[in-house]
Amino acid sequence: MGLEMESRMMFKEMREDVRAVFDRDPAARHWFEVITTSPGLHAIWIHRLSHWLWCRGLKWLARLIAQTARFLTGIEIHPGAKIGRRFFIDHGMGVVIGETAEIGNDCTLYHGVTLGGTTWNPGKRHPTLKDRVVVGAGAKVLGPIEIGEGARIGSNAVVTRPVPADATAMGIPARFVTKGQADPEFEVEKRRRDMHEKAGFDLYALGEDVPDPLVRSIHAILDQLLLVDQKMHTMGEHLCQVNPKYCDEDLPTLDEKELMGELGVPDNVSEKTG
Q1: 85, exposed or middle or buried, with CB in 10 Å at 0-12, 13-18, 19+?
Q2: What percent of the chain lies above the pLDDT cut of 70?
Q3: Residues 8-29: pLDDT tens digits?
């Protein structure tokens, strides 16, 4: 009786998998075409078999079947990975799903996605995707982190920290926005850019993600300047309340040509840079 119930559940899940392809792939035209030509669907079905064997201690056979699926589909799913219902892999080539990864219901992965680990230690090392998560092409989700329900991960993003439910993660390293609220790191970078403009300094083509000691030192100096500027602004507001004439005094303006001359920069160079 137990085997009969498992068989019924297996065929029910297979029908749901086929329906998921039609729901999320506009190129799907006919059920026979989907069953015979969809590598993502084949990889999922083979994984369900290999996972069934893995859970019953037949680990070598499970790995052998998983390797066969990798050869046939270009999709590598470890038989130990836990995958929910109506899982859809579009295109599929280059997808890698690690042993301790967990994927909820109604999730979608595109080609080149990696659900990988960041440590060689045993135990939980791969991410957990809650229901209705979509991971774009080429994205890397690394480590034992949780991606909340309904989250979206942009193409080629590298995610190494948890993503809240219904958030969108993008970039390298990934930053996220959720319900109109930006990641705090966005605000830090915005303040830095404002300080760059105020100081007349542009760190062209270099950001916080560049592992350069000089760049990090410049960022630290700019952060300190920003803090000093904020404190001076607060002090100025208090002084204006004590002495209104203080607010009428403007700071001296910097003459760019005069400044360049003091630094020994020729006029033609300053004109080109300006």
Answers
A1: middle
A2: 72
A3: 777 788 888 888 888 888 888 8
Residues 222 and 196: beta-carbon distance below 8 Å? yes
Task: Find the helix or strand (DSSP H, E) in which 239 lies.
Answer: helix 213-242
Q: How do beta strands 102-103 and 128-129 pair?
A: parallel
For 177, the enclosing helix (H) or strand (E) is: strand 175-178
- What's the pLDDT tens digit per position in 202-258? 444 444 444 556 666 766 777 777 788 778 878 877 777 777 776 666 666 656 566
Listed residue (244, 272, 241) closest to 256, CA to CA: 272
Q: How far is CA 202 from CA 48, 172, 205, in A?
A: 54, 21, 9
Q: Pairing mode, if any, of strands 152-153 and 114-116?
A: unpaired
Q: Which domains does the chain have, with CATH numbers?
A: 2-182 (2.160.10.10), 186-273 (no CATH)
Question: What tokens does 81 get?
Answer: 């990975």
What distance in Å separates the CA atoms of residue 107 and residue 83, rounded to the nearest whole number? 9
Model-level pTM? 0.63
The distance from CA 176 to its chain's CA centroid, rounded to whole angstroms, is 8
